[in-house]
Amino acid sequence: MNVIEIKNLTKSYGKSRGIIDISFNVEEGEIFGFIGPNGAGKSTTIRTLLSLIYPTSGSATIFGKDCIKFAPEIAMEIGYLPSEVFYYDKMKVIDLLNYSASFYKKDCSKRIRDLAETMDLDLKKRIDDLSFGNKKKVGIVQGLLHEPKLIILDEPTSGLDPLMQQKFFDLLLEENKKGATILMSSHVLSEVQRLCSRVAIIKDGRIIKVEKMSKLTESNYKKFKVEMISEMDKNYFNISGVSNLEVKEKTISFLYKGNVNLIMKKISDVEISNVWIEEPSLEEIFMHYYEKEA
Ligand SMILES: Nc1ncnc2c1ncn2[C@@H]1O[C@H](COP(=O)(O)OP(=O)(O)OP(=O)(O)O)[C@@H](O)[C@H]1O
């Protein structure tokens, strides 16, 4: 079952493009990544989904319901962390969270305490005494306190230190194990790689690829680094399927796509002192898609 279905969604801001003809689905139980550079249209897509802004054309459903018509009902089951959080500065953290919790028909007080402890957030502090990262934590607790079935996160980790990012990811994985579906936007590809099972790549307002993470990372490309006994002509490895060929003294590195036997034979035919064969990082694959489409 699809928790989110986006069909041909377009949003123009006057003359400037926001998003163009966006379509993708997020299945129940998935952690789905939405990746693209600044200004690509991630926030616009998410804000349209949440009915914070209205599409120029196209439609979307969440839990099978139209996201505009049923917006208030759907909102009860969604936890949303915006890319930037703004609060009434004079309030105490606990008062703000209790106020947020009052919108839901359940007692969230224990959950607030547990989340605050996990995220190392001081509930007694005033919002305006908090650092940017700690304000982000307030947003995280606020988004998760009602145990939503769908968690939508817009650039969730900006402002969190690495330890907190890890705790936050563990928390998300736990929520996911309990059944929550997660849609997370990011331009930090390594974090998407760590968490998500499927991704949509957005560029200039358009989706350029929706793919399983495993497929995207295996992608047939392999990264080779060969250390030679003595310096040699780099063109030796310049066969069909080889790209990004680079030489640094006795070390030759390149990307290879094709029959692995052919390249292994080339390597074994010369004297080498070492070889490394790696999967390319998501960054490298991502750049490849971008260059291809540019
Ligand atoms: N309120 C607005 N008025 C006019 N143009 C807008 C508005 N909001 C967004 N845009 C434009 O829409 C496009 C998509 O912006 P959006 O904020 O959705 O991108 P993003 O992928 O979330 O980027 P970022 O990672 O920087 O937040 C950009 O070209 C942006 O300038």
Mean model confidence by pLDDT: 90
Secondary-structure element string: EEEHEEHEHHHEHEHEEHEEEHEH
CATH superfamily of the largest domain: P-loop containing nucleotide triphosphate hydrolases
Total DSSP helices: 10
Quick one: biggest sheet?
A: 6 strands, mixed
How many domain modules? 2
Architecture overview:
The protein has 294 residues and is α/β, with parallel strands linked by helices. The protein has two domains: 2-217, P-loop containing nucleotide triphosphate hydrolases (Rossmann fold, 3-Layer(aba) Sandwich); 219-293, Alpha-Beta Plaits (2-Layer Sandwich), CATH 3.30.70. The protein is 32% helix and 32% strand. It has helices at 42-49, 71-75, 93-101, 109-118, 132-144, 162-177, 189-195, 213-218, 260-268, 282-293, and strands spanning 2-13, 16-27, 31-35, 57-62, 65-66, 78-81, 150-154, 181-186, 198-203, 206-212, 221-228, 242-248, 251-257, 272-278. The two termini are 34 Å apart. The mean pLDDT is 90. Residues 13, 16, 18, 36, 38-44, 83, 187 line the site of adenosine-5'-triphosphate (ATP). One of its GO terms (molecular function) is ATP binding.
